[in-house]
Write a structure and sequence with these properties.
heterodimer, B: alpha/beta, 4-stranded parallel sheet, globular
């Protein structure tokens, strides 16, 4: 079962987005084609949400070298990182259903219980992994691909230095991106597939995939090794 | 590299007078009690308050102290063979203080945490006595997705880890190392009293002996063993 229909294939998304940016410079136009009617309907179904949650559990099991069984899932649910991810999925489900109030309440609960603040309209692909639930902020209009790993104290938001008249845009993160502890990505940027971002580094520019970034501001320090 | 690291870690643990009780086989209740008393005593001394049971009770609710106490108890239970209780204690600590001190690590007496959240200490790291961690000390490895091995991070005695500092990977730091806020320590440092700063961290100087003895990480304006006048002032102000 392919689940990547939620945000389209992310690499293709990035290519098209970059093309659109070069042509028109308007990101809002570029992003609208991906809100296909199909993806909207899918995100409103509970079955789809359920499948996303299952993919999160499966990815966590792979990460922790545990057998993907129901027993393990129940054990994992105790983990703050796992339960906050599940809560985010429900948040997004209620948001997509139009029950914004419940989505907001769940977000508030997520902040109080786990210190994880994920905006309900962030679109995150299957297999989100929060290793330590600790001060994780994912702002509104963030698009994240599959199998994203957040260690702790990560912030993925629009630019905090946004000025009126500036070209606004979402943050787009590709597949298989690993955020180290304290890594921050902000602004109208695109981070390609298979990027590793080192601890305490600040990413404020777009980067192609397959590289590892480190430093303040982040620079490419090497190729990511084949997993 | 691994052999060198092993040698160095041995040196540090030899220098550590706490070595004997660091081994998991000797984790007794009396040892745990001694550790807790040392932690609270050091914390009270740094705050300039007198070491009494009443003061100990008063500061036990502070997030930093609460974390350390819970960690000691959880670690004791862990080495006694309990599985569930340490997990529950860790969850409570995570809910209340947002700190993750994983059981299985070995930390010497006199650990003081700052009261801001986000201290994470991996399950295989070893820390000497009288260390201060202000804010974030991360000792989990950061690599590919499937690699979750906790490294063996070793800190000497009297280290001061600034807030936001991340100590990543299987490295060891010598006695009295200080790290500046938001630095990322990726390599071992064998010079006692080195000051590390930057991303990635480099040595920026060495702490002088007098400075090391007199600097109070919780209250930089007062030294350890302040005068009774100061002590009264500290006791009056809500910390």
């Amino acid at each position: 079962m392919s689940l990547d229909t939620s945000i389209g294939s992310t690499s293709a998304t990035i290519e098209r987005l970059e093309l659109a940016r070069n042509d028109t410079g308007s990101v809002a136009d570029a992003i609208s084609p991906f809100e296909t009617s199909r993806s909207v309907i899918e995100r409103r179904s509970f079955k789809y949400t359920w499948r996303l949650i299952a993919s999160d559990f499966r990815f966590r099991c792979t990460y922790e070298h545990k057998p993907p069984s129901t027993k393990t899932y129940i054990k994992l649910l105790r983990h703050p990182g796992m339960s906050s991810v599940v809560q985010y999925r429900l948040q997004h489900y209620f948001y997509a259903r139009g029950w914004r109030m419940i989505g907001g309440l769940l977000k508030y609960l997520n902040i109080v219980l786990y210190g994880v603040e994920i905006n309900e309209n962030a679109r995150i692909g299957p297999g989100l992994l929060i290793v330590h639930a600790n001060t994780i902020i994912i702002g509104s209009d963030v698009i994240i691909g599959e199998r994203c790993v957040l260690f702790h104290q990560n912030a993925i938001t629009n630019s905090p230095f946004f000025e009126p008249g500036e070209d606004w845009g979402p943050v787009i993160i590709g597949d298989d991106v690993v955020f180290g502890g304290g890594a921050v990505a902000y602004g109208k940027i695109v981070i390609g597939d298979r990027t590793t971002i080192g601890t305490n580094s600040v990413v404020n520019k777009s980067f192609p995939g397959g590289s590892s970034l480190f430093g303040v501001p982040a620079r490419v320090v090497g190729k990511r090794s084949e997993a | 590299v691994t052999a060198e690291k092993a040698i160095n870690s041995d040196e540090i643990s030899n220098a550590n007078s706490y070595k004997a009780s660091c081994s998991s086989s000797k984790m007794t209740f009396l040892e745990t009690r001694r550790l807790i008393r040392a932690d609270i005593r050091r914390r009270l001394e740094l705050q300039g308050r007198s070491v009494t049971y009443l003061n100990a009770l008063a500061i036990a609710i502070m997030p930093g102290v609460f974390t350390v106490l819970s960690y000691r108890i959880a670690n004791y239970l862990h080495f006694r063979g309990h599985r569930l209780l340490p997990m529950i204690i860790n969850d409570i600590v995570h809910l209340y203080c947002r700190n993750e001190l994983l059981v299985g690590s070995r930390i010497g007496p006199g650990l003081v945490l700052g009261d801001c959240p986000g201290v994470g200490i991996g399950s295989l790291c070893r820390i000497g006595s009288n260390c201060t961690v202000l804010g974030i000390l991360t000792t989990t490895i950061q690599s590919g997705v499937v690699n979750v091995m906790d490294p063996d991070t070793v800190l000497g005695n009297n280290c001061i880890i600034g807030s936001g500092t991340r100590v990543v990977g299987a490295i060891s730091l010598a006695d009295g190392t200080q790290t500046k806020p938001n630095s990322v320590v990726l390599r071992s440092s064998f010079i006692p009293g080195a000051i590390l700063d930057g991303v990635p961290a480099r040595q920026k100087g060495v702490v002088s002996v007098t400075e090391l003895a007199s600097w109070n990480p919780l209250r930089p304006d007062r030294g350890i063993g302040s005068s009774p006048v100061n002590r009264g002032a500290v006791a009056r102000c809500p910390s």
